Amino acid sequence: MENFLLWGFYFLTFYAFLPGLVSRTFGFRVFKRGRAEREIALTFDDGPDPVYTPLLLDLLKRYDAKATFFVVGNHAERHPEILKRMHDEGHIIGIHNYVHKTNWLMRPRTVKKQIQRTSEIIRNATGSDSVYYRPPWGIVNLFDFSNLGYMQIILWSALFGDWRKRVGAERLKKRIMKKLRPGEILLLHDCGDTFGADKEAPVHMLAALEPVLAAGQAKGYKFVHIAEMIAITDEAKKSNAGSDAKAESRKGGSKPKLGLMKRIAVSCWMGWERLFHVVFRVKSVADGSIFHYRVIKYRGATLELSDGNRIADKDDVVELHFDNGMLLQLMTNSRSMMQLAVMLIREVKKSMPQLAERLALDADAQLVKGLYGVSLMNRGVENFGFDVHKLPKGLFDFSSRLYLKLLLRVLNPSGKQRLSEQGARMEPRIMAMSMDTFWQRFSSDDERTAPNRAAARDFDGRLHGNGTNELHSAAYDNANAAREFTP
Length: 487
Known about the structure:
Blueprint: H1 2-26, E1 30-31, E2 39-45, H2 52-62, E3 68-71, H3 73-76, H4 80-88, E4 92-95, H5 108-126, E5 132-133, H6 144-147, E6 152-154, E7 158-159, H7 169-178, E8 185-189, H8 201-218, E9 222-224, H9 226-251, H10 260-279, E10 283-284, E11 291-297, E12 303-304, E13 310-311, E14 316-322, H11 324-333, H12 337-361, E15 370-375, E16 387-390, H13 395-411, H14 415-422, E17 429-434, H15 435-442, H16 446-464, H17 479-484
Parallel strand pairs: 1-6, 2-3, 2-8, 2-9, 3-4, 5-6, 7-8, 14-15
Antiparallel strand pairs: 10-11, 11-14, 12-13, 15-17, 16-17
Helix pairs in contact: 1-10, 1-13, 2-8, 4-5, 7-8, 11-12, 13-14, 15-16
């Protein structure tokens, strides 16, 4: 029963909850807001509609506005002439699945077939391929990130409930006007033939949109399709990167702060983690410890350890988990990834003896063969007695890689920059240590720990030099090693 719950928990976490949370909150692998001085992106979902979409195209033409239409394949299939008009008048056509159904309720292969079928309809009507995709309701699943690598997923920065006719034209106009500012990606609907929508709702959308276009023109704004917004945003990022680097250098580094949306995402993540700890009986080590743990059966290929021991399939092991609340605190207080690495090393060094005391009193841990964990820490853990092994390629490797990178994206205030700079080099690894080595190094027994305390002092000395609390200038002459020491 526990295994069933565990796999169900993992499925919901990896397939649905985490991809949805991180993509919507942080824009992970999606584009949902631009950087522009006067451009606003208009996007329309669920069409084409034989009545309302031509009227919308007429309206856009009058104001020389461009837009992106995310079409539903079974609607587009019936009206190829409308697709051709969209294309001929300079608009972008994106994909919104063949039927308007959430990706959470479809297998990855089914989602891929829906996209391919809709892409073929667009190609036949316009002669061009579509490279933009918006999942219905903006809901992505785990495999959308890998299966759709050739497409750009587009979400939005503002939507207005215009699929319900009760909103009315006047109220809808006021809602849109509040979001009428450069860089916004506005989501509206030109068809009411999908589940939960009102068929006549686009009447109010058209009535509200015309005064919005007029107001935008009066303010000097330009309404663009998504391809132009992405290009403008890329240029803005390039120019800002240079000025930000210079400013950061002058300040000598500063502690990043968490915005409101990030605080909400972190709270959701922590709540999800607490639920996991309760359901699967994850235990705390001690107050202030960087670790949590649970005793499980190891599943996988035999791990050959450097002290001659081994961990075989179905052996009992202590599975280690980082305390992500403490990690968040460390990441928030650190000014650089190198400083974070040093702080994390110190916390691990402090927590290992605490873990030994806790395990010595835990009846469930008396017959375990070793410690086991999966982490993005690629270097430095050998100093604590761990052996490092590659994860075998497969579903577990893929899901671990995604989970840990999402974790960094959520918890680290600079996680997005960190992933973009070093993402290709960040690989999850298995860390394992036999209990013989663990007790020898970290037991409170003086006879066992004396040589290891000396080793720890030697290691600490190499970090700091001269017995001070300041880092020695050569302690991390290989900066990459410190950067790789991440949770």
